[in-house]
Each structure stands twice: as structure tokens, then as C-alpha cells.
Amino acid sequence: MRLLDDESLLERIAQRDEQAFTILYHRFKDKIYTYALKLCKNESDAEDIVHSVFLKMWLRSNENKIQYLDAYIETASINTCLKLIRKRKLITKVQDAFVTDWEEAHDATEDQNYATERSQILHEAIGLLSPQQKLVYQLCKEDGLSYSQAAERMEVSTFTVKTHMQVALRSLRNYLLKRSSAIHLFLVVYLTF
């Protein structure tokens, strides 16, 4: 594919041209990574932000016409970083409140019951995922692999792993919100990542 300007790439991406999207990805991934690393100060988070920004662009490419790609990418990168930082602060706040409430109200029997209930509900929610989503969740969340390590093991792209994980986490959060209680709130916040 000959060298395309940003506007031509965006038009082709709106038509679901994966080759154009790949060109756009390689053209801007380092720029997004730099923004993300500067704000988040964490390489793994920066990689996740790169994938999130591009996933957002792919999913919304035919909804909104992007006028100024550089400005869009900078804004999307910054907003995604700030969202991640806010989520981390919320998790810390919820964990602190949960620990305080937990310490005031629990005994050994309750502790075991809550752990069993949490595990059972999470297991039910995971059981509803597609096979690919289950595999990605297991590799990344349970086995602790990075997206790139999981992608290598599954022989797919990192972007595919990231997409499966985001869909899986959204499904798990929705399931847990339907079965809400203080225990599930903790799980929902945990599954935000």
C-alpha cells in the first residue's frame, strides 16, 4: 500500500480496512506510548493504553469523523491515562473502606463464607465467557502472563488478546453488578483492569 496521508487512512479504516489500520498503528504507536509512559510512569500501563486507544479508534472509526488525528491521539492518550489513574485511586479507596468494614464485622466463619461465595460467583461468571475469553482471562489474570506473552502462547496478536480481555472483563463486571452486594462490589472494582 502506497504511503497514505492520515485522512486517507481514516477513510479506509472507516471502511474496515485492516491493512490501513495496521499502517496507522505503526505510524502512531510510539507517540501514544510516549504520552502514556510520561503520564502513567509504568511500561505495562503504557502498553495497555496504546492498545486501548487503538481499540477505541477501531470500534468508533465509522461513528465519528476525526478531523485532526494528532490532536485526537494526544487527547485520547491523555484521557485514557487519566481514566486509569482515577480507577486506581477508586480501587485504593474501595479497598481501604472494604478492609475497614471487614475488620470491624468479620469472624473466621464469615471470612470463609465470603471467600467461598466470591469464588463461586466469579467462577459462575467466568463460565459464561466464550472459550477464547476464558483462555485469555486464565492466562492473564490467573496465570499472570502479560498480553504479549498470552498472545505468543495463543499464536494471535497482542491486540486480539487485549480485545478478548476487555470484552471478558466487561461481561464479568456486568454479571457481578447484577448480583451486587459489598462482596461483589469489591470483585467489580478488581475486574476493572
List keywords for this structure.
193 residues; 9 helices; Arc Repressor Mutant, subunit A; Rna Polymerase Sigma Factor, Chain: A; mainly alpha
Structure description:
The chain folds into 2 domains: 6-82, Rna Polymerase Sigma Factor, Chain: A (Orthogonal Bundle), CATH 1.10.1740.10; 106-190, Arc Repressor Mutant, subunit A (Orthogonal Bundle), CATH 1.10.10. It has helices spanning 6-14, 18-40, 43-60, 69-105, 108-127, 131-142, 147-154, 158-178, 182-190. The two termini are 36 Å apart. The chain is globular. It has 193 residues and is mainly α. The longest helix has 37 residues, at 69-105. The chain is 81% helix and 0% strand. The mean pLDDT is 79. It contains 9 helices and no strands.
Summed up:
The protein has 193 residues and is mostly helical. Helices cover 81% and strands 0% of the residues. The longest helix has 37 residues.
Number of helices: 9
- Rg, rounded, reads 19 Å
Q: Briefly note the CATH topology name of the largest domain.
A: Arc Repressor Mutant, subunit A
Tally of DSSP β-strands? 0
Largest sheet: none
CATH class of the largest domain: Mainly Alpha
What amount of the residues lies in strands? under 5%
**Which word captures the global form?**
globular
Intertermini distance: 36 Å
The ordered string of helix (H) and strand (E) elements is HHHHHHHHH
- The portion of residues assigned to helices is over 70%
Uncertain stretches of 5 or more adjacent residues: none
Derived structural class: mainly alpha
Estimate nothing, just give the exact number of structural domains: 2
Q: In the CATH hierarchy, what is the superfamily of the largest domain?
A: Winged helix-like DNA-binding domain superfamily/Winged helix DNA-binding domain
Quote the average pLDDT. Answer: 79
